[in-house]
Amino acid sequence: MPSDAGAQAHHRALESLYAAAPVNELFQSRLRIPESGCSVIDFEVEEGLYHAAGAAHGTIYFKMLDDAAFYAANSMITDMFLLTTAFNLLLTRPMKAGKARAEGRWISGRRRVLVADAHIVDASGEEVARGTGTFMRSRISLSSLPGYGAAG
After folding, report:
1. For residues 33 and 77, what is the distance between their CA atoms, to the nearest angstrom?
2. Cα-Cα-Cα-Cα dihedral sign, residues 3, 4, 6, 10
3. What distance in Å separates the CA atoms of residue 135 and residue 114, rounded to the nearest whole number?
4. Strand pairing of 127-141 and 98-108?
5. pLDDT at 2
6. Chain-centre distance of CA 33, in angstroms?
7. What does residue 5 show for φ and ψ, rounded to 5 degrees?
8. What average pLDDT does the chain have?
9. How far apart are CA 38 and CA 74, in angstroms?
10. What confidence tens digit (pLDDT) does each residue in 69-115 have?
């Protein structure tokens, strides 16, 4: 891993990358990487994200779990962008409108394949979902991506 200053710069650059991704214009969310191997995404569940039975659709669960685990893993890798190769979800409770938080944690790997997990806590403090992902190094340099390193 880089020096503490290098790690902090990498974390801020990843936060900027997240903010710059076009898909994140669809969600009210903000990524923070407090330390290497950890990520936090605070987000808002809106009724526009509900399925027909009046609770959050599975797409919001997957998106936030995958992103939280992904950024926890990519915080450990400073040169290349990671790709999700597999992700397992466990949806445990319906999620309603309000604030929620996804927290990601790197588990293992640094060379080619990394494993990380994440969980979501809803506005009432209850865990509503958890997941584990496998991420592989791509051939895409982080420094080549729009948003990586931009002031966020």
Report:
1. 13
2. positive
3. 5
4. unpaired
5. 57
6. 10
7. -65, -40
8. 95
9. 10
10. 999 999 999 999 999 999 999 999 999 999 999 999 999 999 999 99
pLDDT value for 152: 43
Diameter of the chain by CA atoms?
Answer: 49
Is the CA virtual torsion 127, 60, 62, 138 positive or negative? negative
What is the distance in angstroms between the CA of the first residue and the CA of the last residue of the chain? Answer: 22
Residue with tokens 């200053």: 5
Predicted confidence (pLDDT) at residue 59 exceeds the cutoff of 80: yes
The H-or-E segment that residue 78 falls in is none
∠ CA 94-25-124, rounded to 5°: 30
pTM for this predicted structure? 0.94
3 band by pLDDT with thresholds 50, 70 and 90:
confident
Domains (ranges, CATH) in the chain?
Answer: 4-143 (3.10.129.10)
Please give the structure tokens belonging to residue 55: 């609770």
User: Are 39 and 101 within 8 A, CB to CB?
Assistant: no
Q: Can you list the alpha helix ranges (DSSP code H) found in the chain?
A: 4-20, 58-74
Tokens matching residue 90: 């466990």
> Is the per-residue pLDDT at 23 higher than 80?
yes
